[in-house]
From TrEMBL:
Source organism of the structure: Aureobasidium subglaciale (strain EXF-2481)
Record lineage: Eukaryota, Fungi, Dikarya, Ascomycota, Pezizomycotina
Record domain BRCT: where: 4-93, 102-193, 342-414
Composition-biased stretches (Acidic residues): 506-517, 624-633
GO cellular component: Cul8-RING ubiquitin ligase complex; nucleus
Coiled coil residues, start to end: none
Pfam families: BRCT (PF00533), PTCB-BRCT (PF12738), RTT107_BRCT_5 (PF16770)
Name of the featured protein: BRCT domain-containing protein
GO BP of this protein: DNA double-strand break attachment to nuclear envelope; double-strand break repair
Length: 905
């Protein structure tokens, strides 16, 4: 057995890269462990670079910031963290290298999770998500476990952690849910048991910002003063420090617009870092430019050179460590005309400070949007780290889109404005300041390639007749617009001579370019002049060229070996990814709903209007004592609305999406909830918590809950709790007609008939409040979000009202004159509501009453009639599915008990 252990790492040829996470002591320890068990160690070169990379099978490092990383992937070399060595040693076999990757996109790579008495569905989702994103799962509680996931402390694993004072953290499942929703690793602090902050009484106190490690030297695409760089003082220091440009040739683009003095400084820095300068893009290893255009940028990109900007260059010199310019958005050349979709957008920031704020300001400007320090009504977006601020309140009142910084980062990274319907961009975890994850989004090089340099190669012979032919490999093509970059301060090293360089005429022809005497050129005795090959391909495509050319060029490939490796890895990950993806898409994430693995997303049958009406007429006939033939399930589904059968091994197609309200059978009993929901799913009933998905509403009686009221807008079948009891007891679909909800007392009290309301809802098609803007006070009973959801599902817009001016848009359109609304407006009582009436839903607290007169004054200025109403007005409207008016819903100061005359003015 000992002999087998001695050969554990046989065949492994490795090196160790030291850095912030691996010091020299740990390096020696890793080398000792590996070599004693059969591995072969290859020392690095004196400059710290990797010696003969093709001989390696493994590179052990704490990050991917080293020059040979891309080449290592091309040669199928495993890049792993030290945990791979420890895990393999403990298990007595070489573990899967992928789950020990230092790639930051695998943000659970440091997580080893163990679950403590969770419902099976939640447990499966957490394990799948963790494995898919680089983490590990351990069923038993071992010393390597970093996180125990539990709902409370009343289980053996949590007691063991406390008794032995283990270093692992005990977190709620909500932490995984929020991490997966954001696609980033957030701080566990607010989720830690036994007293998680997110479960405490809600507080309006702002969440304090933490550090932003993702912004190391990447707050701006415009570099400041060049760094002072001193070479190592001894050979031993040289061994520990990386000469970042050792044996590399660097090309500086002319679009940097630097003066001669700064050019000399940059040349000196490259030389001290072990590199040399070139003007030949074919010879260069590193291209440094400011914009994503020009012949050299395209050629360097297509040849897969390292492409960065001057800010990246300074950062590499300062740290004396290689970084990937694609890892930081502002370390890569910027788009000259901004990102498509951002022109005309006015963006403001809230709750970001320090480097995070500077970074986001610069990102807004580089994307092409207008950044405003103060927010006004003409702003289109507010980017915030959390929702506790005056700007957030004002944005709600002014109906300005509120998003987190991930929307801006993803838009910039993907070269297009992203949709705001993606909940990832509007998710704000409670008690978390999202500034802690600023700067972690990398450039999506595939999107950049597609837009800027993938297609449309042009050759010199393709140039227009009579035009000057630029040298294909001597500096970047000067852009037509050579004025200083808009909104970007000049470099501190710039002089008046720099301005004369910017304003200089276009370069001369190839053999007479006066600018070739720049300090960016190598020394005269070493300079190489390359003959222009007329007819050779010179990649000169820019976005404007891509729109006019029909020629295409396939993007470069990394070779057959890397493709085969990727295919093998994909097959190895297949089960994990499929399970994670299914769990991620379901409603409620990984913390609500038990055994979701048995609930595939399937299309549900469409219930036709005729079938719905037939079922409701059946109920009316029953009330009158008429004999009506039994309606079969086929008739209920409707001939045109037959279920689309989805091939699946996990259960039958979904026949009804049921929303349950007013029943507490699952309250506090997640295990029972998981079991019973799985039973329902097995007979074709899918449980939802979203009224917008409801096709079957189950309640004990007619209720005034948010779920019940909002779901009526979808015209669902409404059944009593007996339907749910019967389905669980018999494990078959009960007959709808036997369990239709009947509550005559509530109908009389509330003043509407359920059947008529559902028929009107079917006709309204969620357009009852289409075109309406309804204002709501912050302290209204039930909360703003409750009424916002009811208004939204009925087609209207809800705005929080705090007394600010210019929030009322003006009179609504004339309902009778809008042909697009169709026949659904008929018999709605719309004639009782004038188009110029604007509604404020309010309670009667003193701070709410004070707003009433302000609302009336604002309405007068917009030629509108202010209607200040109780919440009952909206509830009646939504439940009856018709708009009508009664004075009993009006609110006036004189009706408020104890209100003093003039207090609200």
């Amino acid at each position: 057995m000992a002999g087998a252990d001695d050969l554990l790492f046989s065949g492994v040829t490795f090196t160790v890269l030291t850095g912030p996470t691996i010091d020299s002591v740990q390096e020696e320890r890793l080398i000792q462990i590996l070599t004693h068990k059969g591995a072969t160690f290859i020392p690095r070169r004196e400059d710290g670079s990797i010696n003969n990379i093709t001989r390696h099978t493994h590179i052990i490092t704490g990050d991917i910031e080293f020059p040979e990383y891309s080449k290592a992937l091309d040669y199928n070399i495993h890049v792993v963290r030290p945990s791979w060595v420890e895990s393999s040693s403990e298990k007595g076999r070489q573990t899967q290298a992928r789950q020990h990757s230092p790639d930051p996109s695998m943000f659970f790579r440091e997580v080893i999770v163990s679950c403590a008495e969770l419902p099976e569905g939640d447990k499966d989702a957490i394990i799948a998500g963790t494995l898919a994103l680089g983490g590990l799962y351990s069923a038993p509680l071992t010393k390597l476990v970093t996180h125990v996931v539990a709902l409370d402390m009343h289980n053996d694993k949590c007691r063991t952690v406390q008794a032995k004072d283990l270093a692992c953290k005990i977190v709620l499942p909500h932490w995984f849910d929020d991490c997966l929703k954001l696609g980033k690793l957030i701080n566990e602090g607010p989720y830690l048991l036994p007293d998680p902050e997110i479960l405490r009484a809600s507080s309006d106190e702002p969440v304090r910002a933490r550090s932003t490690p993702g912004l190391d030297g990447a707050t701006s695409a415009v570099a400041g003063a060049p760094p002072a760089y001193n070479p190592p003082i001894s050979p031993s220091d040289s061994r520990k420090q990386l000469a970042v440009f050792k044996d590399k040739k660097v090309l500086f683009s002319k679009d940097l617009n630097v003066n001669d003095h700064l050019a000399k400084t940059l040349r000196h820095l490259v030389s001290q870092a072990g590199g040399s300068l070139t003007t030949d893009v074919e010879e260069c290893d590193v291209y440094i430019g400011h914009y994503r255009d020009g012949m050299d940028y395209v050629a360097a990109s297509q040849a897969e050179k390292t492409v960065g900007n001057l800010s990246w260059f300074y950062n590499v010199i300062n740290r004396n460590k290689w970084t990937n310019p694609l890892g930081k958005l502002l370390h890569y050349p910027v788009p000259r005309d901004g990102i498509p979709g951002f022109k005309g957008k006015r963006i403001s920031l809230s709750n970001y400070s320090g480097e995070a704020r500077i970074y986001l300001e610069n990102l807004c400007k580089e994307a092409g949007a207008d950044f405003t320090k103060t927010m006004k009504q003409d702003n289109t977006h507010l980017i915030t780290a959390h929702t506790h601020s005056e700007k957030c309140d004002a944005a709600q009142e002014w109906n300005i889109d509120i998003v987190n910084h991930l929307w801006l980062e993803e838009s910039y990274a993907k070269c297009a404005a992203q949709s705001l319907t993606n909940k990832r961009f509007t998710h704000f975890p409670p008690r978390t300041n999202l500034s802690e994850i600023v700067g972690q989004t990398p450039i999506d090089i595939n999107k950049v390639r597609k837009l800027y340099f993938a297609n449309g190669e042009k050759t010199i012979k393709d140039a227009e007749p009579g035009t000057k032919t630029p040298h294909p490999f001597r500096g970047a093509v000067r852009a037509p617009d050579t004025s200083p970059r808009k909104g970007v301060p000049a470099s501190s090293a710039a002089t008046s001579k720099a301005k004369s360089f910017v304003d200089a005429p276009e370069p001369m022809d190839v053999d007479g370019d006066e600018n070739d005497s720049s300090e960016f050129l190598p020394a005269p005795q070493t300079a190489k002049r390359r003959k222009t090959r007329v007819g050779s391909d010179a990649a000169m495509a820019t976005p404007s060229m891509l729109r006019t050319t029909g020629r295409e060029n396939s993007p470069p490939t990394t070779g057959r070996a890397s493709k085969e490796k990727a295919l093998r890895d994909l097959h190895a990950l297949k089960d994990d990814v499929l399970l994670y993806d299914r769990e991620r898409k379901r409603k409620g994430g990984v913390v609500h709903g038990g055994r979701r693995t048995a609930e595939p997303e399937e299309e549900q049958p469409v219930v036709t209007k005729a079938a719905a009406t037939k079922t409701r007429n059946k109920r009316k006939s029953d009330d009158m004592g008429d004999d009506t033939a039994e309606i079969s399930e086929t008739e209920i589904a409707g001939v045109k609305g037959k279920a689309k059968k989805v091939k699946t091994d996990n259960g039958p197609p979904v026949k009804f999406t049921m929303l349950v309200t007013g029943d507490e059978r699952w309250l506090g009993n997640m295990k029972r909830e998981a079991i019973e929901k799985a039973k329902l799913r097995a007979i074709g009933i899918k449980i939802t918590t979203e009224p917008s998905e409801c096709s079957l509403l189950c309640a004990p009686r007619i209720l005034r809950t948010k779920k019940f009221i909002a779901a009526l807008a979808k015209s669902p079948f409404v059944v009593n709790i007996g339907y749910l009891d019967s389905a669980l007891a018999n494990e078959t679909l009960p007959d709808l007609d036997d369990h239709l909800l009947k509550d005559g007392e509530a109908e009389q009290r509330l003043g509407f008939l359920m059947d008529d309301a559902l028929d009107r809802a079917d006709m309204n098609k969620n357009h009852l409040l289409h075109g309406w803007t309804i204002f709501i006070t912050e302290k209204v009973p039930g909360g703003f979000e409750t009424y916002k959801e009811i208004i939204s599902i009925n087609g209207g817009t809800a705005i929080l009202y705090k007394g600010r001016s210019n929030v009322i848009p003006g009179p609504r359109y004339n309902p009778g004159g809008d042909r697009d609304r169709g026949s659904w407006v008929q018999n709605q009582g719309l004639e009782e509501i004038e188009p110029n009436q604007v509604f404020l839903i309010s309670g009667t607290l003193p701070e709410e009453v004070k707003l009433w007169q302000k609302f009336r004054d604002e309405a007068d200025r917009k030629d509108c009639d202010a209607m200040i109403v109780k919440t009952d007005w909206l509830i009646n409207l939504a439940m009856s599915q018709q708009i009508e008016w009664d004075e009993k819903w009006a609110l006036k100061e004189s009706l408020v008990p104890g209100y003093e005359e003039g207090r609200g003015k």
